[in-house]
Specification:
The chain is mostly helical. Helices cover 88% and strands 0% of the residues. The protein starts with a helix and ends with a helix. The mean pLDDT is 89.
Length: 92
């Protein structure tokens, strides 16, 4: 009985984090929730008795991809702030 409860909560958490990632308007928040989704997905693979896939999901899905997306968000935000200055150009 408790296994069904754990699996049900895991599925619910996966659905909530996936939905939150898709509907988030803040890029940083979306990336952080995406990382949480990757970690929950790794836990789901452990529950399915696939530890090799769980390790790959945690390392690549949550770890490497998350870091790359966070770096992309920081570059995007920096570019937007510089772009705002470039639009005015300092020339009047």
């Amino acid at each position: 009985m408790s296994e069904w409860l754990i699996d049900g909560l895991l599925v619910f958490a996966l659905i909530v984090t996936a939905t939150a990632t898709l509907v988030s308007r803040d890029l940083f928040r979306a990336v952080v929730v995406f990382i949480a989704f990757g970690l929950l997905m790794a836990l789901a693979w452990v529950r399915l008795r696939a530890p090799d896939i769980a390790l790959a999901e945690a390392a690549i899905g949550a770890g490497l991809t998350g870091v790359l997306l966070l770096d992309a968000v920081s570059h995007f935000r920096r570019g937007r702030s510089n772009n705002g200055d470039a639009e005015t150009g300092g020339e009047r």
